[in-house]
Amino acid sequence: MVPNGVNHNNIADLVSFSSLAARGRQMQIHTVVVDGPLALRMRRLDAAREGATGRQILTLPLLAARLAGGFIAPASQEVLYPAIRQALVAGGYEDIDKVSQLPGMPVAVLSALRDWWDMEVPASFPDNARLRDFRLLERRVRGVLPSEMLSPPDLVKTALERVHFAPKLVGAITLHDVPDIKAVWRPLIQALCDVVPVRWIASQHSRRTWFAGQIETRSSGAALLGSADLCADPRNEVRQALRWARALVAGGKVSPHEIAISAASPAAWDDAFLVLSREAGLPVHFTHGIPALATHEGQACAALADILLRGLSQERVRLLFARLPRSPTQESLPSDWAKGLRRSAALTSPGLWRHALEQTRGERANGDLAERALLPILEDLARGIASADVIGRRLLKGPALTLWRDALRMAPPQAIELSLQALRVTDRREPGNSIAWGSARHVAAAPRAYVRLIGLDANAWPRRSNENPLLPQHLLGKLRLPSAEAAEGDQMMRDIIVGQSTNYTLSRAYRSATGSLQAASTLWPKERECVVGRSAIPAHAFSESDRLYARPPDAGKDPQVRASRACWRAWWDGEQHTAHDGRVRPDHPLIVDALADVQSTTSLHRLLCDPLGFVWEYALHWREPNLDPQPLALDHRAFGELVHALIGGVLRDGAPQNVDEIDIALEREAARLTESWPITRAVPPGLLWRHTVEMARERALRGLRDALGEPRGTSWTELSFGEPGDGPHPWATLSPVPIGQTGICFRGRIDRLDEDAARRAAVITDYKVGTAPERKKPVVFDRGAELQRVFYGLAVQSLLPDVRSVSSQLTYLKHDPARTLSLTNEELAKAIDQAVAFTAAGVHLQRNGQIAPGPAPVFFDPLSIALPADLDSYRRVKRRLFAQVNSALDKLWSSP
What we know:
single chain, alpha/beta, seven-stranded parallel β-sheet, five-stranded parallel β-sheet, 35 helices
């Protein structure tokens, strides 16, 4: 087969072509002209199978480039975009100057140029500012194109000058199934008719009245309408199309290359086809390409764009390096470069990265190698989208780099997200052994025997004629762009596809993807309409999940389906307490192990206030994922930890004696935490983080002033028990503290402990950053929310046996001055006895397996996602059962 042409810049092709021309008498050159990528690949495949030496398969632009000679080629999108942007930057426009630098302008200009070049440009034009601007823009674009890259009008002009070489260069020409030829190419075809035989083989519906060569009309096939399916929505249309295709292939009489599925404009169905065809395992070829973002290379580009547009973060950097193609830059990074970094830290600047990497250097095998390799890359990434070209060449390679450059050509770097979404790449499938999915024009140029037309809704097939945004019709006068004839073109493509088929089916969607009602197309056969419901059982399934859906008895045998159905029935059975509500066998090993661990005050709260949550979190080790690496504000718990850290840092070296010492120490500690926290946990962005630290500083100041001057003896802050800790302790042992005879031991960290050895008294202070409750009764457990300070009282009594008077107080720092609520002596002793009893009851429930959800949380509980979505109804149905199971803890949940 003769190579495509010298314009491919391939020396081997040039030599081959020169040799072929020299042997012209021995070899008959014949050129077949096709339309669209599907026809081009199918005809070349046919030529290869037939061993057709001397046959050239070309499109009209390639035919013109062959005649133009030399290294001339049609101007590609990669060349046109930079030329358009250069022409727009030149300025000097009357009407479009204000919008010439908008991100979407290059795409709009390219669309308008293609429309303009495709039509037959008349000698006279309407006189208005928009047309004058556009003609100036077009001249500038054509003027800055490389000499070997020509626009269609220039390509035709150059080819016409060398048309007398056509007998030797292209030989006899056959226009094979070309539905229509744009006006710009018609003068070239007419001129070729005068020098070489030109034959046009096409359907009777093709537009050939202007053609002067030999016309051969294909006979129409015995087109039988199989069905006209009214589907629920576009996704259901795709499901029905794949069921239809698999039924044909499974029948054994139809091969995939005989099947085509088409829409006037396929973009609306692409995502569904991409997902469901992979699920089906069917070879489906996207004639128009697949979205670039659906490929590994596209995802690497998207990860890089995300960092450049939104800034550094640990999650974005990890994602980028996980998706980068292999390159010297990536290979220079050690495999353990992220070891030691806390996943909760956002790390939003190179400085934070440097600090975090230095702090974790000892955990990596190669010392500072990760810093030397990673920090220069992070410095480049931190420069933002302005460095898109440089950082792209540094990190990307091969197809990923090509995609990145294509996206930067289409629009300014600031719009790279939109550019990446618009890019398409080949799906790397061979159409010769695949089902074709693509636009009607592609399928009409390469007809297949079995076709399915989808999307026959009003304004979808045929499409409504849309005006070009840059050249609206009211400014063109009598001129008519080819895009304005979309409806007529869609009608013709439908007639060609159906006429050349032997069997065809139709479908349309009752509702759009957004849920709006859709009217039928004028091409829709209402009398043959068959409603296909979303839940209809298919006659032929397209995948294993579809097969199970079609056969409920088979699906019911699947363990997952059986378990899910049993779970659903159990949730709404108000008479039984089942395993799906939390019930397990007595002394379950996982629960026994969880109870044997040393508990924290947090796990004790789960044990007593949410028995099922305790199982999920501490027996099954479920954890809430961190979905917000850089929140706008710290949550209530994290803010409280910040306030406690400030107070503990100030008191670490001894209690200040006056307000000035407190202010100085707080300032120093706030500065330290401002720098250290962002490398260990998620904090808000810079300005908000500094404001958060200032708010925490004010609350810490109230707590420190509240205790100033009180004769409390020795003060201890952030005092740990039951676990190793830094610094001195008032007790001799760091062993966990047992809770009565329950078998439970616990550990913790007390915000502040003041011990007066002379009076043998101790005061426990638990700092609260929220608002104090407005109630007359003293706060003891507060429905389980304040269990912590009671258990701290138990710990102090156990670890300091010489102390006779223990007071446990809550200090609310949101008030100015701080408000304190205390439990002393008999009140605290009674509360401790009750806490031990509640703990015994909680352990008994867990060990007996009588586990159920606790009371509804005041705020959102992330673990509740494992419960039914309609949680209020579920709790209402199971209220009596749960109340019976949790009766031993009900008094705690209603306590003041």
